[in-house]
Amino acid sequence: MNLNTADILVIDDEPQIRKLLEITLQSNGYKVREAGSGREGLALAASHPPDMILLDLGLPDESGQVVLRQLREWYNRPILILSVLSSEEAIVSALDGGANDYLVKPFRSGELLARIRSALRSATGEPENPVLVCGDLQIDLSLRTVKRNNEPVKLTATEYNLLALMAKNEGKVLTHQFLLRSIWGPSFVDQSQYLRVYVAQLRKKIETDHNAPVHLLTESGIGYRFV
Amino acid sequence: MAYFCSVSPIALSNFLLHKYSRKHQYLVSIVLILGVAGICFAFSAFVEYKVVAFVLLLMVSLIAMFFEIAPVLLAAFLSAIVWNYFFIPPRFTFAIQSTENVLLFSMYFIIAMVNAVLTYKIREIEKEANRKTVREETLKLYDTLLNSLSHELKTPIATIIGATDTLQEEKQKLSEADAGQLLSEISKASIRLNRQVENLLNMSRLESGFLQPKKDWCDIGELIYDVLHQLKDNLNHKPVEVCVQENIPLFKLDYGLLEQVLYNLIHNAAMYIPKYAVIRIEASLSKNKHLVMVVEDTGNGFPEDEIDYVFDKFYRLRNTHPGGTGLGLSIVKGFIESMNGTISLKNGEDYGAQFTIDIPAEIAEVNDLKHEP
Q1: Residues B98-121: what's their mean pLDDT?
Q2: Which of A142, B193, B194, B303 could pair with B156 in a Cys bridge, judged by C-beta atoms 3.0 to 4.6 Å apart?
């Protein structure tokens, strides 16, 4: 798949939004297909699986959450949710339901394109290559080392695990619960205080200005995203 | 509540009307008339029967001030019967012998009824007048609200419609720079519109009374810088000084609500302070383990006589430039109060506004949390 000509399926019942997305995406070189309902979207996705799906949650026939779960039974490429629902519950439940990312309407086109690029990139990431490069950061998964501007960064085991997990899911919003369960274990799911402390520590080590992070971004009330 | 604070007869009668159902009103009327008649009867050796008529009429008038029409008429009717039977000679019969007494009784009966009906009517008219004033006040409030809202919503919409029309119809005549200018106006107007809708939604969340803070551990430094990042464009390189107490613990609070609170306060400051002014944000742990945040600026501050009103819904400063619905600060106050906190505003020593937020919260010391599984 060529990242810049990826085939994107838009499932949204609002013709205005579909038009906007069609123009924005096509002018950036993407191929766009559109569906105005959940059922139509599922059919289009099944007949010819797209490289990525943009899914609205408020569909006329079936709830977007249901469509998301049905897609996730067989479809493993990126799904980006576009929705007017901005509550933390809605976002966390969509992310837990298998969405890669979530953008609240109204959104800026630049932000959308950046999220699409990053989701497509992580979907085609080469798992054979053990060295992840992200701007000034280099993370060597086989040696478990991190370098910033070619200078080694000294991390504790937990700090490293957290960074590696986030870097492997570049661009994807990882919820607090997911991170806590993966790094500290299931009994720590409600102990978000640990996550806060370690994210702050990690930022001090990997960010140029830990108060204006460019790698480890906060998704308020939801989780963190590595870019 | 209002019933207890007010001494107006309307309020009192409303209170009694609410307190007593109609069945109770009948009962209370009967008991009052019989009770007073009983007392008069006990002293009938000293009180002439004609005086008793006046005492009973007084009771009927009092009842008419507070109860509905039917129980009042019952009281009037009952008092006439009781007066006749127990007091008008010959006593203990309904028979009346002298013409004078027949006349007295008939007049008593009519006066009691007219008294009951008139008192009731006056009360109804008063009530209606009261309703009208309340309705007028509500309408006035509604008008100001609609004016400010429609202005706030329609200005950006007008900009969007006008600019898109020009872009569509005068494509050839427009220079590239002008077209770019129009597009940027559309973009600014949409952002403004979105913010107003956001404010209205937040307000209705508060008004619905269902706002339940979802508490989770918050890193206050992260929160402050997150908000400043979101407001980057509004701040437009205005200097912001951030001062977070060293080793400040984590606080268990609703991140989303706090974010909105800080956003509104800093957005306000960014909008209204003069170019040279500085914004300063401070966060610390108070002695009684509360989160204390101060947002202050070196602008002109608030007019002293308006400070008490700035948190009121839809309140806008008298001499302010257009923009804003008067919702921002009332949302701030509502959100903070939903977390059992307080916010106060004063003008700083010799400059600018100073908002102080104080919220009680569970805390977690950062040094106790270095947990390596």
Answers
A1: 84
A2: B193
CA distance A182 to chain B (A): 11
Residues B235 and B338 in one domain: yes
Domain that holds residue B360: 216-369
User: Where are the extended beta strands (E) located within chain B?
Assistant: 216-218, 240-244, 250-253, 279-285, 290-297, 342-347, 353-360, 362-364
Looking at the structure, do residues B229 and B204 belong to the same domain, yes or no?
Answer: no
Single pTM value for the model: 0.69
Cβ <8 Å between B217 and A196 = yes
Q: Do A196 and B222 touch (CB under 8 A)?
A: yes
In this complex, the residue of A156, A158, A196 whose CB is nearest that of residue B219 is: A196
Contact present, B96 and B88 (Cβ < 8 Å): yes
Contact B216 A192 (CB under 8 A): yes
Question: What phi, psi does B298 have (nearest 5°)?
Answer: -105, 35
Residue B137 CA to residue B145 CA, distance in Å, equals: 12
CATH number at residue B284: 3.30.565.10
Are B140 and B196 members of one domain?
yes
Instruction: Tell whether B121 and B175 lie within a shared domain.
Output: yes
Q: Do A221 and B255 touch (CB under 8 A)?
A: yes
Statement to judge: residues B45 and B170 lie in one domain: yes
ipTM, two decimals: 0.77
> Which of A106, A183, A200 is the closest to B222 by Cβ?
A200
Of B176, B210, B244, the position where a domain reaches its end is B210
C-alpha distance from A2 to closest chain B C-alpha (Å):
32
Contact B255 A192 (CB under 8 A): no
With beta carbons less than 8 A apart as the criterion, state whether A37 and A61 touch.
Answer: yes
- pLDDT one-digit tens code per residue, B309-348: 888 877 777 766 656 667 889 889 999 999 999 999 999 8
What structural domains does chain A harbor?
3-123 (3.40.50.2300), 131-226 (1.10.10.10)
